[in-house]
Design goal:
The complex is a heterodimer of chains A (293) and B (240). Chain A has a single domain, classed as Orthogonal Bundle (ABC transporter involved in vitamin B12 uptake, BtuC). Chain A has 11 helices and 4 strands, in the order ααααβββααααβααα. Chain A has helices spanning 2-32, 39-56, 61-84, 92-114, 140-162, 164-174, 176-181, 186-212, 221-233, 239-259, 268-282, and strands spanning 119-120, 130-133, 136-139, 214-215. Chain A has a two-stranded antiparallel sheet with strand order 1-4. A two-stranded antiparallel sheet of chain A has the order 2-3. In chain A, helix 3 packs across helix 8 and helix 5 (140-162) runs antiparallel to helix 8 (186-212). Chain A is globular and about 60 Å long. The model of chain A has no long low-confidence stretch (mean pLDDT 92). Chain B is an alpha/beta fold and 240 residues long. Chain B folds into 2 domains: 1-82 and 158-240, P-loop containing nucleotide triphosphate hydrolases (Rossmann fold), CATH 3.40.50; 92-157, no CATH class. In chain B, helix 3 packs parallel to helix 6 and helix 7 runs parallel beside helix 8. In chain B, strand 1 and strand 2 (19-29) form a beta hairpin. Chain B is built from 10 helices and 10 strands. The longest helix of chain B has 16 residues, at 172-187. The radius of gyration of chain B is 17 Å and the shape is globular. Classes of the chains: A mainly alpha (293), B alpha/beta (240). Chain A binds chain B through residues 164, 167-168, 170-171, 173-175, 177-186, 237, 289-293, and chain B through 53, 55, 74-76, 78-80, 84-85, 87, 91, 93-96, 100, 103-105, 107-108, 152, 156.
C-alpha cells in the first residue's frame, strides 16, 4: 500500500505540471478549436526566460518569474497573431498545421541560438529537501507545485464556469457569430484566452525547471502532446476535466513503471497513448463534458 | 428628428463572397413598428437580417440606424447600439445552461440590478425557462429553445429586435403564443423586424410587410392590405 501511495506522491510534481498544461491547452482548444502544438514552445520559452534571468543575469527570483511570464504571454500572442489569426476561419486542420510549423520554427531557432543541451535551472534553495509522512516521502518541490496548480486551476475553473468572461468564451466556442450578435467582442475574448493560456503555460515551464533542475530547447515536445491528450480525454474546453486527466496520465505513467517488469520501462511514453485509445474507444467525447459544438 | 426612421436600408446589395444574394433592397422600420419580410425558402430573407448585422459582404447601399450609417460597424458594436437578433433554427448555445444562455444575452449590461430585473422579466414572459434554468439548453424542447432565444435577445433591453423565423417547426398553439408575446414585447416599445414564412402569423401582428422573391422586393404595403392581396397567395402557392 505504501509503495502504491509513494508512486502517487512521486508523480505529484509532474502530474501537476501536466494538469496545468492541459488546463491551458484546453482553453484555446475549446474557444477556437485549436490543436496547438506551439503551446509546448510557450512553455519552453518561459522556462528559458527564467533560466536566463536567473543564471546569466543573476536576477532575483521574483523578477525572473515576472520576465518569464511576460515572455510566455508575448510569445503566445505573437504565435496567435502570425500563425492562427490569418487562418482562423480555414478550419481545424489548417490551424493544426500552422501550429506545428510555429512549433518547429521556434524550437529549432532556440536550438540554433542556444544549442540543444540541458541547462542548469536554479531552484530556490528553500525548496530542497523532503518531508516524511511515516514511511512515505514527499519532496518540498512536489508540495509547492501541487499547491500552485490546485490554486490556479480552481481559479480557472471558476473563471470559465461563473464569470461573464467565461460565459463569453463558452458562447464563442459554440457559435462565434451568434455570440457576436449579443455584443460579445469575440476578437478581444480570444486574445484574452490566449493571454490566460500562455500565462498558465509559462507557470508550467517555470515549475518544470524547478522540478527537474534543468531546461532545454526541446523540452516542450513531449509535454504538449500529453497536454493535448489530457485535454481530449477531459472533454475539449472543460478545464476541470483536463486537470483531472492530466493527473490520471501522470500518475498512471508512474504506476506503469512501478508495477511492470523493468524490461518494459522503456515503453513508458506508450502509456498515455494506450490510455488515450482505450478511453476514445469507450468514450469518444472524453471522460467529461466537452464545451464545444 | 422624429421623421428619421429607426432602421433604414437603401438599395442594399449584399451576399457571401462574390455571390450576390439580395439586390437593391430598401426597407424602413419605424419606431414602435412591426415590419415583416415575407417569402418562401431561400429568397434572401435571412441574408437581409445578417446584412443588417454586418455578417455578410455588403457590396453597395446604405444601412442606417437612427440616422447613423452602421454599414461597416463590427457586429458586436451593432449589438451595442440596441439591435438584438433572434437567429433562425434555435440558435441557442447548447453547451450552456438555460440561465447561462440568458446571461450571455445580458453581456452588454453593466449593472447587476438591471440584469436581475431583465432576468425576472424574461422569466415572467416565459415561466418555463425559470423551471429549466439549470438545465443544459440542448435538453430543452424545440418550443422551449425558441423561447430561450427570444428571451436571450430581450435580456439586453434592445430597441430593435430582428427575428428570423420564430415559428419554424413549432406546433400551431406555440406559434400563437409566440405571436402574442411578440405583440406584448412591441407594446413595451421594442420595434420588430420579422422574417417569416408563416404569412398568416406575420401579417396578423405586423403593421407593414415586404414580399421578397429571388433577393428583391416584389411587393410591399400595409399588412392588412397585403393580407388581402391575391399575389401573396399566388406566390405562396407557387403559381407565379
Amino acid at each position: 500500500m505504501n509503495y502504491f501511495l509513494q508512486q502517487i506522491l512521486n508523480a505529484l510534481g509532474w502530474g501537476s505540471i501536466l494538469a496545468l498544461l492541459a488546463a491551458g491547452y484546453t482553453m484555446t482548444f475549446g474557444i477556437i478549436g485549436l490543436v496547438n502544438f506551439a503551446y509546448g514552445e510557450v512553455f519552453m520559452v518561459a522556462a528559458f526566460a527564467a533560466y536566463f534571468a536567473l543564471t546569466i543575469f543573476n536576477l532575483p527570483y521574483w523578477m525572473a518569474l515576472l520576465i518569464s511570464l511576460i515572455s510566455a504571454i508575448v510569445i503566445g500572442l505573437v504565435i496567435e497573431k502570425i500563425a492562427f489569426k490569418p487562418v482562423r476561419r480555414a478550419g481545424m486542420i489548417t490551424l493544426f498545421i500552422t501550429s506545428l510549423g510555429a512549433s518547429v520554427i521556434i524550437r529549432n531557432l532556440f536550438i540554433m541560438l542556444f544549442d540543444a543541451k540541458l541547462k542548469n535551472f536554479k531552484a530556490p534553495s528553500s525548496l530542497k529537501g523532503v518531508y516524511l509522512l511515516g514511511d512515505l516521502i514527499i519532496s518540498k518541490k512536489n508540495i509547492l507545485i501541487f499547491l500552485i496548480t490546485i490554486i490556479l486551476c480552481t481559479v480557472l475553473v471558476y473563471l470559465v464556469k461563473n464569470t461573464k468572461l467565461g460565459i463569453a468564451m463558452r458562447s464563442i466556442s459554440y457559435d462565434s457569430q451568434i455570440a457576436e450578435t449579443l455584443g460579445i467582442n469575440t476578437e478581444r475574448t480570444i486574445i484574452i484566452t490566449f493571454i490566460i493560456a500562455s500565462f498558465i503555460g509559462g507557470i508550467g515551464g517555470i515549475l518544470w525547471g524547478i522540478l527537474f533542475g534543468s531546461v532545454r530547447a526541446s523540452m516542450g515536445a513531449i509535454p504538449v502532446i500529453d497536454a493535448f491528450i489530457a485535454s481530449v480525454i477531459g472533454g475539449v474546453g472543460n478545464v476541470f476535466g483536463a486537470v483531472v486527466s492530466g493527473y490520471i496520465l501522470a500518475i498512471g505513467s508512474a504506476f506503469f513503471i512501478a508495477y511492470l517488469p523493468p524490461e518494459l520501462v522503456g515503453a513508458k511514453p506508450l502509456f498515455v497513448w494506450i490510455v488515450f485509445f482505450i478511453i476514445l474507444i469507450f468514450k469518444p467525447s472524453g471522460l467529461f463534458r466537452a464545451n464545444i459544438k | 428628428m422624429s421623421i428619421v426612421p429607426l432602421l433604414e436600408l437603401n438599395n442594399v446589395v449584399a451576399g457571401y463572397g462574390k455571390k450576390e444574394i439580395i439586390n437593391k433592397i430598401s426597407i424602413i422600420v419605424n419606431r414602435g413598428g412591426i415590419v415583416t419580410l415575407l417569402g418562401s425558402n431561400a429568397v434572401g430573407k435571412t441574408t437581409i437580417l445578417k446584412t443588417i448585422l454586418s455578417q455578410t459582404y455588403l457590396k453597395s447601399g446604405e444601412i442606417k440606424y437612427k440616422g447613423i450609417d452602421i454599414a461597416h460597424f463590427a457586429t458586436y458594436k451593432i449589438a451595442r447600439l440596441g439591435i438584438s437578433y433572434v437567429p433562425e433554427g434555435r440558435g441557442i448555445f447548447a453547451n450552456l445552461t438555460t440561465k447561462e444562455n440568458l446571461l450571455a444575452g445580458a453581456y452588454l449590461l453593466k449593472s447587476k440590478e438591471e440584469l436581475e430585473n431583465n432576468l425576472n422579466r424574461v422569466y415572467s414572459i416565459f415561466p418555463i425557462l425559470k423551471e429549466r434554468s439549470n438545465q443544459l439548453a440542448e435538453s430543452l424542447s424545440g418550443g422551449e429553445q425558441e423561447m430561450l432565444v427570444i428571451g436571450r435577445s430581450l435580456m439586453s433591453k434592445p430597441n430593435l429586435l430582428l427575428l428570423d423565423e420564430p415559428s419554424l417547426g413549432l406546433a400551431p398553439k406555440l406559434v400563437e403564443l409566440i405571436g402574442k408575446i411578440l405583440r406584448e414585447i412591441n407594446n413595451e416599445g421594442i420595434s420588430i423586424l420579422l422574417v417569416e414564412q408563416n404569412a398568416k402569423l406575420a401579417l396578423e401582428i405586423s403593421d407593414y410587410g415586404y414580399l421578397i422573391r429571388k433577393g428583391t422586393i416584389v411587393l410591399e404595403g400595409k399588412a392588412k392590405d397585403l393580407g388581402r392581396d391575391k399575389r401573396i397567395k399566388e406566390i405562396y402557392l407557387g403559381i407565379i
